[in-house]
Write a structure and sequence with these properties.
It holds the Pfam family Phage_int_SAM_1. The chain is mostly helical. It is built from 13 helices and three strands.
C-alpha cells in the first residue's frame, strides 16, 4: 500500500470478511471499515500503520479526536471499531485501559476577543522566543490545525508568493500569509538548520503536537481557540463562507456556517431588524 493511500489495506479487508463470518450486519461492517480507514490515514501521517498496532497509537488517536472536539457518539463508534479489530487480531489487550474523556461541546464557539488577541501577542513577544512567536502568528493568521503545523516542511512555505501550503491525503490547501506571519517565518527559518521540518525542538527534532499545546497552555489558550479566532475574524470581515471553509479545510460547509451564527448576537440581530424595517414600505 502506498503511503497516504486511501485504498483499503488487505488486513482491513480480512477484518471485514471476519465480521461477515460472525454475522455482523452490512451497515456495521461498512461503519467499522470506514472508521478503520480513517484511523489508518491518521496513522500514516504519523509514519505508523495499522499492521503494527500498539496501545499508544490507539490512545493517541482518541486524544486527537477529543482535541478535535468530536462528539461522544463519534468517539464511542471509533473505539468500538478499534476494539473489535483488536479482537480480530487476537490482541484484545490493546484497548484495555484506554482513556476516553471527550471534550464537552459548548453552544458558543470560543474565540479570542480583541483584547485577548492583543494580550496574547504582547505576552509571547515579551517572552522573546522566536519559534513560539512564529507558531502563534501562524496558527492565528492561517487557522491551520496543530497537527498540520507540526507536519509543515520548508517546501510548504512560499515566502515569495506569500503562501503556506497544507498537503494531506487527497487534499491540498493554499493559504495566503499575512505580512507579520511571513516576516516571523522568514526570520525563524533562517535561525535553524533543519533541512525539512519548519518547527523544531531545541534538539533539532520536528516539534510534536503536545509540545505546541504545552507551550500555548502557558498563555491560557489552545490551538483550537486560535483556529476558531481565524475563522471568526474572516467571517466578521465579510469573507464569504465558501472561502473560509476552503481555507480552514472544512469538509462540511455547515461547520463553517457556525461562525456566521456565532457572529450574529442579539444586538446585531436587533440592529439588522431595525435597519430592514425602518423607513421602509411593506407592499
Amino acid at each position: 500500500m502506498k503511503k497516504h493511500s486511501t485504498e483499503a489495506i488487505p488486513l482491513i479487508l480480512d477484518f471485514c470478511l471476519w465480521l461477515n463470518e460472525h454475522n455482523k450486519s452490512p451497515n456495521t461492517i461498512k461503519t467499522y471499515k470506514r472508521e478503520l480507514e480513517k484511523y489508518q490515514e491518521w496513522l500514516q501521517e504519523k509514519n505508523r500503520d495499522i499492521n503494527h498496532l500498539e496501545k499508544s497509537d490507539i490512545q493517541s488517536y482518541i486524544d486527537y479526536l477529543e482535541e478535535q472536539q468530536k462528539s461522544l457518539a463519534t468517539i464511542d463508534k471509533t473505539i468500538g471499531a478499534i476494539r473489535t479489530f483488536a479482537k480480530f487480531l487476537k490482541k484484545p489487550e490493546l484497548t484495555f485501559g484506554i482513556e476516553i474523556k471527550p471534550v464537552e461541546k459548548k453552544n458558543e464557539i470560543e474565540t479570542l476577543s480583541a483584547f485577548e488577541y492583543n494580550q496574547l501577542l504582547k505576552k509571547v513577544k515579551e517572552d522573546g522566543n522566536l519559534r513560539n512567536i512564529t507558531i502563534v502568528y501562524v496558527l492565528l493568521h492561517t487557522g491551520i490545525r496543530v497537527s498540520e503545523l507540526c507536519s509543515l516542511n520548508r517546501s510548504h512555505i512560499d515566502l515569495d508568493n506569500h503562501e503556506l501550503i497544507v498537503e494531506k491525503t487527497n487534499e491540498k490547501r493554499v493559504i495566503p500569509l499575512s505580512q507579520e506571519a511571513r516576516e516571523y517565518l522568514k526570520n525563524y527559518l533562517a535561525s535553524h538548520s533543519a533541512e525539512e521540518a519548519v518547527f523544531v525542538s531545541n534538539a533539532g527534532e520536528r516539534l510534536t503536537e503536545r509540545a505546541v499545546q504545552y507551550m500555548l497552555k502557558k498563555y491560557q489558550v489552545n490551538p483550537q481557540k486560535l483556529r476558531h479566532t481565524f475563522c471568526q475574524r474572516l467571517i466578521d470581515n465579510k469573507v464569504d463562507v465558501e472561502t473560509v471553509s476552503r481555507l480552514a479545510g472544512h469538509k462540511d460547509i455547515n461547520v463553517t456556517k457556525r461562525y456566521i451564527k456565532s457572529s450574529m448576537n442579539k444586538q446585531k440581530v436587533e440592529e439588522a431588524i431595525n435597519e430592514a424595517f425602518t423607513n421602509s414600505q411593506i407592499c
